Amino acid sequence: QKEVEQDPGPLSVPEGAIVSLNCTYSNSAFQYFMWYRQYSRKGPELLMYTYSSGNKEDGRFTAQVDKSSKYISLFIRDSQPSDSATYLCAMSGAGNNRKLIWGLGTSLGVNP
Amino acid sequence: EAGVVQSPRYKIIEKKQPVAFWCNPISGHNTLYWYRQNLGQGPELLIRYENEEAVDDSQLPKDRFSAERLKGVDSTLKIQPAELGDSAVYLCASSLGLAGVDEQFFGPGTRLTVL
Predict the structure, then answer these.
(1) For residue A43, what is the nearest residue in chain B, using CA coordinates?
(2) Over 80: is that where the pLDDT of B97 sits?
(3) Between A1 and B56, the higher pLDDT residue
(4) How far is CA A33 from CA A93, B17, B28, B41, B85, in A?
(5) I want to staple B51 with a disulfide (CB 3.0 to 4.6 A). Which of A25, A78, B11, B72 is the partner?
(6) pLDDT above 70 for B64
(7) How high does pLDDT run on average in chain A?
(8) In a 10 Å sphere around its CB, with 0-12 CB exposed, 13-18 middle and 19+ buried, how is residue A40 labelled?
(9) Optimal mutation site among B30, B95, B101, interface A, most CBs of chain A within 10 A
């Protein structure tokens, strides 16, 4: 079993839809939970991060962490064609255990 | 502010040939990473530098891969000899090396094709 599991999709939604992207993990030592967005032929860029449990909102994006279930989510409201990209979850521990463990990435297409 | 610069962007070589990738991180970033990303996969860490010191190279295939970061700034990743399975995108990233969330900034990558 991989430390981080993420459904690779692809996911296709109409413009304006609410998108839910998810990852599960097995390592209870993870403290930092990140979502990166990667456009085609580009490197990943950090979209949002959450420390420990809870929610974080930034514009149309909301990140949720449920440590009891070892489950994290990224919600995109009012999705736009410009949101079409691959979304990668990544996690790390604290202190000296800061190596990022990545999911496979979920490919999202938002259709106008 | 300039981002992470990588060159070349694309490289096609025949197997058993050597190849080198170059990375210039964001100014002031002490930590530098080399990743390999296969199609449909997340990035796989090859090596992490703190200034000039390689602090995590456990995933670097040392029989054919080597890396250096002279003067703690630019870095070069080399493969010699290349194998068919080395075809992938090689990503360089840099960060400030902060405790807690240490945001990594990625370059566009070098797409390597080994024939």
Answers:
(1) B108
(2) yes
(3) B56
(4) 9, 39, 25, 18, 31
(5) B72
(6) yes
(7) 94
(8) exposed
(9) B101
Closest residue by Cα to residue A41 from B46, B10, B3: B10
Q: Which residues of B touch A45 (CB under 8 A)?
A: 105-106
Assign 3-class secondary structure to chain B.
CCCCEEECCEEEECCCCCEEEEEECCCCCCEEEEEEECCCCCCEEEEEEECCEEEECCCCCCCCEEEECHHHCCEEEEECCCCHHHCEEEEEEEECCCCCCCCCEECCCEEEEEC
- Tokens standing for B86? 């080395």
Instruction: Give the pairing of strands B31-37 and B19-24.
Output: unpaired
Helix (H) or strand (E) holding A73: strand A71-76
Q: Give the residue-averaged pLDDT of A32-45.
A: 95
pLDDT of residue B1: 64
Interchain contact B46–A (C-beta under 8 A): no
